[in-house]
Amino acid sequence: xxxxxxxxxxxxxxxxxxxxxxxxxxxxxxxxxxxxxxxxxxxxxxxxxxxxxxxxxxxxxxxxxxxxxxxxxxxxxxxxxxxxxxxxxxxxxxxxxxxxxxxxxxxxxxxxxxxxxxxxxxxxxxxxxxxxxxxxxxxxxxxxxxxxxxxxxxxxxxxxxxxxxxxxxxxxxxxxxxxxxxxxxxxxxxxx
Length: 192
Prior knowledge:
This protein is α+β, with helices and mostly antiparallel strands. The chain has 5 helices and 5 strands; from the N terminus they run H-E-H-E-E-E-H-E-H-H. The chain has a domain at 13-113: Ribosomal protein S6/Translation elongation factor EF1B (Alpha-Beta Plaits, 2-Layer Sandwich), CATH 3.30.70.60. Strands 1, 2, 3, 4 and 5 form a 5-stranded antiparallel sheet that branches. The protein starts with a helix and ends in a 40-residue tail after the last helix.
């Protein structure tokens, strides 16, 4: 049997984030970000990749005519996006100019925007179904024939109930209908 330590070593997981910063960032700011991210046990951090200046950068509300710096970071320790935003704020970056998202999510969104389909992810959207196997076809035929037999003979009962046939129950529609309301015969006298 494995010890707890062995299980923990085997279950080592890494957390990949993509940090987008609108506007120019200096090397001092990137070094300060790296120092503040060290508390989350940084496994890998890329140098900032800069996009051209855009009129309205995607995802940044109220930011215009700025470039976007993209940093991919891999951590060995999980953290919330608010903690990363706080670390960037401590480095002198405005909270409105930073977005922290999962790297896998950002890659999938980029692929979707560019009309590419990711391979190997198991999605069926836009693909034809596989042809039925012979076993599936047999099950389909069995279900179809038994279902039709049940529907065709729905009003015929082949079984006899042990107590015999019971008389049909009377409903309010079977009672004699008169011209008086049921409330006309109610005595509304006050008690003395």
